[in-house]
Amino acid sequence: MLRYSLPLIIVTILGVFLYIGLGLNPRDIGSTRIDKPAPSFNLPQLEDPNKTLSNKDFLGKVSLFNVWASWCATCRYEHPLLMEIKRQGYNIYGLSYKDTRSEGMMVLRQAGNPYIANGFDKKGQVGMDWGVTGTPETFIIDKQGIVRYKQTGQITEQIWEQEMKPLILKLEKS
Q1: What do you get for the CA distance between the two ends of the chain, in Å?
Q2: DSSP letter, residue 152
Q3: Cis amide bond preceding 7, omega within 30
Q4: Greatest CA span in the chain, whole angstroms?
Q5: Of 17, 52, 127, 150, which shows the fewest CB atoms inside 10 Å?
Q6: DSSP code string of 65-104
Q7: 32-173: CATH homologous superfamily?
Q8: What are phi and psi of 120, to 5 degrees?
């Protein structure tokens, strides 16, 4: 009897794990940064290398920190929504990731600039410190400089309205 039921038990257990796995989001790899202070950094700005952007710029207000690049096709799809988020009055900072200054500036001239400031991370070191796995990625940082959310991949209207915006409104009240 055990000879026939053992394979059935094993197949059932594997089936349960596969069923659970189908419900997971493969793009959601989480972040070790959630509920921890934003990594310390100080970069020249993309638009003006004589100015800097640092983690201290996030203090005192809820901010979005968007990692993007001119070579990132998905970033270009996301850009119009970032422009709309800016029009709604939200604070967006950028990280020009593994890019050239001229290409990054060209994107902002052509598509508009939704960012208060952009850090220029030519070698990608700051992105690595943040745990960036690709572009685009967007973080929500609270008034105390604590990372509260990470969006891996493009922000869609649905993600903005259902996840990110409610969290920002909640964080702004606290």
Answers
A1: 62
A2: E
A3: no
A4: 78
A5: 17
A6: EEEE-TT-HHHHHHHHHHHHHHHTT-EEEEEEES--HHHH
A7: Glutaredoxin (3.40.30.10)
A8: -100, 105
